[in-house]
Amino acid sequence: MTKIQYDAEEIEVSAEAFASKLDLEILQGTGEQMVALSTVNVNRPGMQLAGFYGHFVAERIQVIGEMEIEYLRGLTQTRRTKAINELMECDIPCLILSTSIEPLPEILKCAKKHKRIVLRSKLNTTQLINKLVIYLNDLLAPQKTIHGVLIDIYGVGVLIVGRSSVGKSETALALVQRNHRLVADDAVSIKRVNGILIGSAPSVIRNFMEVRGIGIIDISSMYGAGSVRLTKKIDLVVELEEWDDKKEYDRLGGDNKTHTILDVEVSKHIIPIKPGRSLASILEVAARNYSLKVMGYDTLKELNDRMAANTRNSDN
Q1: For residue 152, what is the enclosing H or E element?
Q2: What pTM was computed for the model?
């Protein structure tokens, strides 16, 4: 019997915390036992209960539904015990019964023998697997924390970056005063979930902002609950930098710069800071322009088309 094992970075969660998060009942094992999670995939071990382990990944959570239970009930007690024991011999994170299934005595006996965790869900098998995949995608998502500010501008998640004291927080504060929503100031925790970057604030500094010369302020308390949000997809990166007269800045919008975070490329603008420029207004324009591009409207292409048409008319 060949049982394939894959090495992967694991995250361990106590059975009690795991069961609480997913509304599960612990049938075998203790709440202090750890559930080792390393993959977002979930397995229904029908083939394994039939004796096939050729492509079995033991690191996956195992889910048994009504179909697998009916198969096991149709076996003799000797074959049933052997099939369940072979599964429990594998180093599985846990076994979950769906649809409030009454566990077979052999399942609990073999689980106790091999010190495996058995849980039960009220959800049907499809609903349970969907809930597990969403949970695992969030838990196991690659993540990092970067210095910056994340704000929701007209529904566009704008990540503001730049060197310390360049004016990121002050710009975000001006945007909040224009009824946009703060997600994170100073430190932005970013997760990559299904190729999408999701930003949030570390819980200890959530809703707080540092304004130099004043100190720490609570955005939610000052401007109301509608001025903040917990998470936001990162759509656009804006880098603020001091104006450099020797540098040539993009004037037409044709550079198409990108910023890579966790191997995901995000559209990027470099905005030079100069006295008299309203950064809040510029970022609002950047967000609206991004939305237009997503909907298929390219301002530069429209300008080029008009110029070309004008040239043709002049030639005629």
Answers
A1: strand 143-153
A2: 0.71
